[in-house]
Specification:
The chain is an alpha+beta fold. It is built from 11 helices and 16 strands. It starts with a helix and ends with a helix. Bound molecules: zinc ion. GO terms for molecular function: hydrolase activity.
Length: about 375
């Protein structure tokens, strides 16, 4: 939601117009280009146009540009489609203000309170950023689409991970998005002189954290699945001096799985292990659950349809979950959904050297087109 971002949106809208689509930008900054009847339920093809700072050129934008290409192919070949098709370039998927503004606005997952209070890490209010771009919170709420106006939602995206490349597959048929929980954990012991406190008379919070880190693979072996992930992504030791025993360790735990009951098992196990480690090191343990997002599953009919089309094209593929969130996750309860991945070279994303081979881009777009045409019949 910046001036440059708006320039890119205007550019995209012009491309929609050039293709003869009916275009508009909604109150959340989503740019929409529609082929066909304005009132009938449409197949939506969406992904995001925003990027992280110093991000790559495929993340998000691929899905929007590929959607436009599908429309061009339909037009050039005079293919009859029985329903309208709408391409949507969403806004703020990367979560500068938390959440995914554009997709949440379209799916009706926003509140006025949140819109008025959301700020970016530098403290800029979302409502101010919207106003600088000629938008406002009330119009953002009005961007909601009625579920009855949607026939399906499809997204093509880069994998942003190494699995497809390492497995030598060119298409990922994604069956769902992992659920995620995030904890803020505090282990509290006693800050002390690193020279005078004997090793057996310490309450060293970092030692507790280190012990826990070593238990993660066992927790996953015993309670998790091959889709489980547990990550300690941020650590803060207090007081944080080289010559002082850390009296407190504050850290995050982010856990993921495709099944919610597995997420509960992982969370329970983390809690038990942390309590017993805290006892061993004479620490006090507390945690706060910052968020719990349930796993999202795409429609089996659409997933099967994508798989059939990939097979018919004779492309190599695998079924896989997505460990990252995407715009489409807000539509799973509203309309049939399907997500297609193509490989990321070296698994790199959110970096300037993010890349996908043009051959894979073409294949991904072909799968998107064929799936779209099947759904439109
Ligand atoms: Zn993305």
């Amino acid at each position: 939601m910046t001036e440059i971002d708006m320039e890119a949106r205007q550019w995209m809208m012009q491309k929609f117009k050039d293709a003869g689509l009916t275009t508009h930008m909604d109150g959340a900054g989503n740019v929409c280009g529609r082929l066909g009847d304005p009132d009938k339920p449409a197949i939506l093809i969406g992904s995001h146009l925003d990027s992280v700072p110093a991000g790559g050129m495929f993340d998000g934008t691929l899905g929007v540009v590929a959607g436009l290409e599908c429309i061009r192919v339909i037009q050039e070949n005079n293919i009859d489609v029985n329903c309208p098709i709408e391409i949507i370039g969403t806004s703020e998927e990367e979560g500068r203000f938390g959440g995914m503004l554009g997709a949440q606005a379209l799916s009706g997952n926003l509140t006025l309170e949140w819109l008025e209070s959301a700020r970016d890490p530098k403290g800029e209010y979302l409502k101010d950023a919207l106003e600088k771009c000629g938008l406002n919170v009330h119009d953002t709420l009005r961007a909601r689409r009625d579920p009855s106006s949607m026939k399906a939602f499809l997204e093509l995206h880069i994998e942003q991970g190494p699995v497809l490349e390492n497995s030598n597959k060119c298409i990922g048929v994604v069956d769902g998005i992992s659920g995620v929980f995030k904890w803020l954990v505090k282990l509290k012991g006693k800050a002390d002189h690193a020279g005078t406190a004997p090793m057996d008379m310490r309450s060293d919070a970092f030692m507790g954290l280190a012990d826990f880190a070593h238990e993660i693979s066992r927790i996953i072996d015993e309670e998790g699945t091959d889709k489980s992930r547990i990550t300690i992504g941020r650590v803060d030791l207090k007081p944080g001096y080289a010559h002082t025993i850390p009296g407190e360790a504050h850290f995050t735990i982010v856990g993921r799985d495709m099944q919610e009951d597995v997420m509960h098992q992982l969370a329970n196990s983390c809690r038990k292990v942390l309590s017993s480690i805290a006892r061993k090191h004479k620490l006090y343990f507390e945690y706060e659950q910052m968020s719990w997002l349930e796993p999202k599953h795409f429609s089996p009919e659409v997933v099967d349809l994508i798989e059939e089309e990939v097979k018919a094209l004779d492309y190599s593929y695998m079924k896989m979950p997505s460990g990252a969130g995407h715009d489409i996750q807000f539509f799973t309860d509203l309309t049939p959904t399907g997500l297609i991945f193509i490989p990321s070279v070296g698994g790199v994303s959110h970096a300037p050297d993010e890349w996908s081979h043009w051959d894979d881009v073409e294949k991904g777009t072909q799968v998107l087109l064929n799936t779209l045409l099947r759904l439109a019949q």
